[in-house]
Design brief:
Residues 1-21 are annotated as: Disordered. The chain is mainly α. The chain has one domain (16-85). 62% of the residues lie in helices and 4% in strands. It has helices spanning 16-39, 50-61, 65-85; strands spanning 3-4, 9-10. The chain has a two-stranded antiparallel ribbon with strand order 1-2.
Length: 92
C-alpha cells in the first residue's frame, strides 16, 4: 500500500480525511462520466477527455484517492473551459 505524502498515512486510510477524499472523488468521477455521456454526442472533441477520466478511475480503484481527485479536477476544469467556448455543451 502506498503512503500519502501529505498525511504520512497509507492511501485509503479509514480516517475522516481519507473518507472525505474518497467520497469527493467518487462523486466527481460519476458526475464527469454522466457529463461526458451527454456531451460526446454534441461535441465529439470532448472524447479526448475520456482517457484522463479512465486513468482517474484506475487510480481510484487502486485506492490512490488524492491523485485520482487531482486528475478528475483537471478534467472538470477542462470541461468548464470547453463550455466557455462552446456554450451549447450540457451544463455541468
Amino acid at each position: 500500500m502506498r503512503t500519502d505524502p501529505f498525511r504520512g498515512q497509507p492511501d485509503g486510510a479509514s480516517d475522516d480525511t481519507a473518507t472525505s477524499t474518497r467520497e469527493q472523488c467518487a462523486t466527481l468521477l460519476v458526475r464527469t462520466h454522466d457529463w461526458l455521456e451527454r456531451a460526446i454526442a454534441q461535441a465529439p472533441d470532448v472524447n479526448g477527455l475520456v482517457p484522463l477520466v479512465t486513468q482517474a478511475v484506475h487510480l481510484y480503484r487502486k485506492g490512490e484517492y488524492v491523485q485520482s481527485l487531482r486528475l478528475a479536477n483537471g478534467v472538470r476544469q477542462a470541461i468548464l473551459l470547453a463550455r466557455g467556448v462552446a456554450p451549447g455543451l450540457p451544463t455541468w
